[in-house]
Every structure is written in C-alpha cells, then in structure tokens.
Write a structure and sequence with these properties.
The complex is a heterodimer of chains A (about 300) and B (about 270).
Chain A lengths: L1 H6 L6 H8 L1 H31 L2 E2 L6 E2 L5 H8 L1 H35 L2 H16 L2 H12 L4 H6 L11 H25 L3 H9 L4 H30 L3 H5 L6 H9 L5 H24 L7
Antiparallel strand pairs in A: 1-2
Chain B lengths: L4 H28 L17 H7 L2 H31 L8 H13 L2 H15 L6 H27 L2 H8 L4 H30 L2 H6 L7 H8 L6 H14 L1 H11 L2 H5 L4
Helix pairs in contact in B: 1-11, 2-11, 3-6, 3-8, 3-10, 4-6, 6-8, 7-8, 8-12
The chains are: A mainly alpha (about 300), B mainly alpha (about 270).
Amino acid sequence: MSPTDATAAPARTGRGSILARSSGLRTGLLLLPPMLWLGVAYLAALAALFVTSLWGQDDFTGAIVRVWTLHNYQDLVHIPVYRTIAFRTIGIAALVTVVDAVVAFPIALFMAKVASPRVRRLLVIAVLMPLWASYLVKAYAWRGMFSEGGLIDWAGKPFGLHSPGYGLVATTITLAYLWLPYMILPIFAGLERVPNSLFEASGDLGAGALTTIRRVVLPMAFPAVVAGSIFTFSLSLGDYIAVQIVGGASQLLGNVVYANVGSANNLPFASALATVPVVVMLVYLAAARRTGALDNL
Amino acid sequence: MIISPRLKAVLQVLTTLVVVVVYVPLLLVMVNSFNVDRTFGWPPRGLTFHWWNVAFHSSGARHALLVSLEVASLATLISLVLGTCGALALRRTRFFGRNTVSLLIILPIALPGIVTGIALNNAFRTMLGLQLGFLTVVVAHATFCIVTVFNNVQARVQRIGTSLEQASADLGAGPLRTFALVTFPMLRSALLAGGLLSFGLSFDEIVVTTFTAGSQTQTLPIWIFQNLFRPNQAPVVNVVAAVLVLVSAVPIYLAQRLSGDTVSGVTATP
C-alpha cells in the first residue's frame, strides 16, 4: 500500500491527472479490490452454499447429486430431533441475550453516570480486556469452574449448593460470559448520551430512582440494548465450540452442521441447516432496524 | 447528584460483583497452570513450575503458535489493504450502492461463523478444487478481518475531513502523492488500531478455521481444542491458556497508547 505510493511520486502522469479529475473513477478503482474479494468471492460462496442446500445426495456413495430438491428442508422440518435442536438453539441464544442485558445494564449505568472519569476509564479497560483473552481459553476456564470438585462446587459447599455440571445451564452461563462485553459497551455508550438534565428533571417531577430508570433511562437505552443483543444473539446462534467444552452431550445447531460437514459428509443437508441461523438473524436484524438500533452499532 | 445515594451503592455493588465474576475464571486458569494435579480440583493440592517447563518444550504448541502468527500477519496485511481501499472509496461519494457495500463488508462477521465457515469450505473444495491448508485459512481470515480496518479507517476519514487534502492538491500534488504525504500519516494510528484488532481476531478464531484448515494445518486455537480433552495434555493446555490470558493485556495496552480512546478504537466489531 504505502511503499508503492511513496515511490510513485512527483512526475504527474496522464493517469494521475485523470485520477485527480474523476472522483467516480477513483472510487471505482478503490472499490474494485475489496468488492472482488467480498462481492464476488464471498457472496458467490454464500450463494453456492444456498444452491447446494437445494441439491440431493446419493445415500450410497455420499456424492452430491445435482438435482433440485427441497428434500433437505423437508428433513429439517419433519425430523423431530432437528426441530428440537433448532428451537433449543434459538431459546439458548435468547436466554443468553436476556442474561447479558440484565447483567450489563447496572454496570453500564454505573460506568456512564456514577463513576468518576478515572474509574470509568479503568472499568472500560476491565471490560475490554477479557475480549482480547482467547475465546477458547475463556470457555476452557468455565470448564474448570463447573468441573466436579471444582471452584463452584467448593464455593457452594458451605451453602449446600453444587455445580450444575456440564450441560445446557453451563453452556448458557459460559456463552453469556463470553459475549457480555458486547452488551456492556453499547449500553454504556447509549447511556452516556442520555443527558444528566433528564435525571434531574425526572427527580424534580417527583419520580424515585427506580421510576426514573424504568420510565426515562430504559426507553432511551433500549436501542443500545438491541444493538448489543444483535451480537449476543448472533454469536450464540452460531456457536458450537463452547457447547462441546461445557455442554456435556448437549447439541446445538452448530454441532449438527459440523457433524454433517465432517463425519456424516452430507454437505447439502449441512447447508440447509446453516440457513436456519441466517434466516433467524435476518428476521432479527429487520426487527432491530425498526428500533433504530442499527444506528447504534 | 443525579442518582440517589442508595441506587449508587446498589450499582456499585453490582458492578464490583460483575467485575469479580469476569476475572475469577481467568485467574482460575492462571492458578491451574501451576496445579500439581492434572484435574481441575479446587483448592489445588500443591503448586509447581513443572508444567510451564513441559509446555515450553511442547513442539506441537510451538509449531501451532508459529502458524497462528503467520496466518494472523498475512490476514492482517490483506485486510489493511482491502479495508483501507473500501473506506477511502466510500468517503466522499454518495453513490447508490454505498449502504450495500458497507453491509457486504460487515456480512462475514455478522453471519454466524459456521455459515461463513461452510460457505468457504464448499467454495474452496467443490467450486475451486483447492486443497484445504495454510492459504485457505489466510483467505478465510482476511475475509472477516476486513471490517475491522474498514471501520477504523472510515471513522478516521470522517473526522479529518478533506480540507488538508484539498490544500495539498491546490499546491500541485497528485492523488498518489497526497495520499503518501498527507492522507496516510493522518490514517496511521487508525490503521494500527484496525490492524491490531484484525490480528487479534484472526489469532483467536476457531470456528471458520476448523472448516478451512484441513487436517494438516494447525493454528494455536485448533491445537488447544484438539488437546483439550486429552488428560495427558491438560496441564500443557493450562499453561498455554495462562500465557494467552497474560498476552491479552498487550493489545489493550497498545490500544490505550495509540488512541487514548479505547471504546471507539477497539470495539467497533466483535
């Protein structure tokens, strides 16, 4: 990028002057490389994936049969186990999102409206730092937390509590932990934009702290919550690593997709399965758009 | 005084609680790397440096680390070029496809990783007939890393405006010269922040990687994942995990130094 530009210096060539005059041409030339990469290569890959989901597979040889069929989608709907897994995945993604929103709101409010600038800065760093810690390491850390005789068992013993063990509860907690910063930061940014005078006005009009939060702060922070939920929801929908680490034998959509690409080697069916999170996300994004949340990203 | 003292106290307690819950698992990983036992039992029966020594000499982990660094560097390089091109192209012109282009750049990271993963897997293997390996991982990573550079550079070019570049053009510099002497120096810290994010994203990625790496190429996350369930390797995995927790402080520190504005610099995307 820079080296070539730096060497192609003083003498103005014809190309240079055309570039200088035509901003359309310049835009086009600049757009060409990223659009070739994403627009042609990536979009084509996505389109091909969708096409593949409409193809069949030879049960005997495992080879893809290029005949149009809705068979894969019919299986998806009619075989109960896939329906169960799809709904379970969406349910867990929704639960993770709710947990994150509930946990993130107080800390975001504290950061935005209570903490001194110095504490706020420290908290922002404290929240961001785990984002840089490896995803696998964080999921692995919770495997240690939930293990039999592990930290949670040990801490719960005096109260007669046990670790929930590896399963869907552990999966939900781990996912909520993994995506929490993605919820805290947009809510924090959203609350920072709420003027202090609104708190005062609400107090002057006789509202208590909780009423102010419920009637003034929450409605104004809602688009930010939705913005954060896009990350937590989407990331949970597609996850299949955390559930393998802390989920015990539980399966989510991602596991089934992975199994169908790998061991079962049924790419058409895997493609059909993979369209489920895409469709769910598109619906979710369309709904989020109506709240104005997309401007908060 | 806009929030009542009682609510303040409640918020403070909740905030402390969340920060504790966020850091306890990470501390547990650190402590476990010194654990004498091979299990996660708490409290540990004794502490030792033995596993750190073993991990340091683990050829599998070292090789995987090297592959990860190479992949992340190459993917970052590609995304720097493509992301900057995209951001500069969209700066002044309001052409019809503007929103489509930004959507397209965000898409690889907005879609669940498995979707991007199997789409690329299918494209590499059946459409292009390529063998999965090092290069396919680099291409896949670059695809979802472009957005980090794009976001950072786009935010920067919006802030700096165009007057300095116009002045440069008025003084007789052509577009390339203006870019090298005026635009690029102003973009440098945004490029560093975007590149850092992109490097971190690639270094940590596992979902898309599992679909595009094939059986021969092992990045560090893949190595960890494959050794996670092997009791013999567990202590070494603990140490690698502890090292990664420590290393994660570096980019935060760098980002602080770079921008002083962590939130906008490092969080634009997951």
